[in-house]
Specification:
Blueprint lengths: L10 E4 L4 E11 L2 E9 L6 E6 L9 E6 L3 E6 L4 E7 L7 E7 L8 E6 L1 E8 L9 E16 L5 E6 L5 E5 L7
Antiparallel strand pairs: 1-2, 2-3, 4-5, 5-6, 6-7, 8-9, 9-10, 10-11, 11-12, 12-13
Length: 177
C-alpha cells in the first residue's frame, strides 16, 4: 500500500541478463508492459527465480531471488541494495519457482519451491542458510511444469511434463519445526 492507503500492484522479473526489472502496472497497456526500474543483481551467477519476501513485520519491501549457485538473496528494491545472502537448498538443481505457503498467522512463514527437474521442497523463513530448515523430495521423473498449494497449506499439487501426471502431496511441517 502507498501513503494514501491504496494497494499498489508490483510485478518483478529476473533473467539471464542478471537484472531485476520492475514493471509499471498502472501505466501499462494490454500487450505491453512499461518498465519502471531495473538494476543488476549478479556479476557471475544467473538468477533463476524471484518472489516478494513474505516478511510480516518489515516495513522494507524486500525481493527474494535464487540463483544457479544455490544462493538466496534479499534485495531492498527502493535502495537497490542487497540485505542478505545465504545458502539455499541444494537438492536437485537450482530453484526455478517459489511460492508462499499459506499458514496460520501465528506460525513462521514458509516457501514452497520447485527445481526444473524432479524436486519440490519447503523452506522455513526467515532465511539463515541453515540446511535443517529446508527439505526437498523427488516428485516427478523429469520436468516439473508447475505447482501450487491448497488454500489451507495442507496440500501441494504438482504437474509433470512428459509423465502427464498431477500429484497431490500432504505437507507436514513437523520435521522442519
Amino acid at each position: 500500500m502507498n501513503e494514501d492507503g491504496v494497494e499498489v500492484l508490483k510485478l518483478f522479473s529476473v533473467g539471464k541478463d542478471r537484472r531485476v526489472f520492475e514493471y509499471d502496472m498502472h501505466h501499462s497497456q494490454y500487450g505491453y508492459l512499461n518498465v519502471k526500474n531495473w538494476f543488476e543483481i549478479e556479476q557471475e551467477a544467473v538468477p533463476s527465480s524471484c518472489i516478494w519476501y513474505p516478511e510480516r513485520d518489515s516495513r522494507e519491501g524486500l525481493l527474494l531471488t535464487a540463483n544457479n549457485e544455490y544462493k538466496m538473496k534479499l534485495w531492498n528494491i527502493n535502495a537497490r541494495s542487497s540485505r542478505k545472502t545465504c545458502l539455499g537448498p541444494t537438492y536437485g538443481g537450482e530453484i526455478v519457482r517459489m511460492k508462499e505457503l499459506p499458514v496460520h498467522k501465528n506460525m513462521d512463514p514458509y516457501l514452497i519451491y520447485a527445481t526444473q527437474k524432479k524436486v519440490i521442497g519447503l523452506m522455513k523463513l526467515p532465511l539463515d542458510g541453515n540446511p535443517n530448515k529446508t527439505m526437498g523430495l523427488i516428485a516427478h521423473p523429469n520436468d516439473i511444469v508447475d505447482f501450487c498449494a491448497s488454500a489451507d497449506g495442507a496440500y501441494m499439487f504438482t504437474t509433470g511434463g512428459a509423465d502427464l501426471s498431477v500429484k497431490m502431496w500432504k505437507i507436514d511441517l513437523y520435521p522442519i519445526e
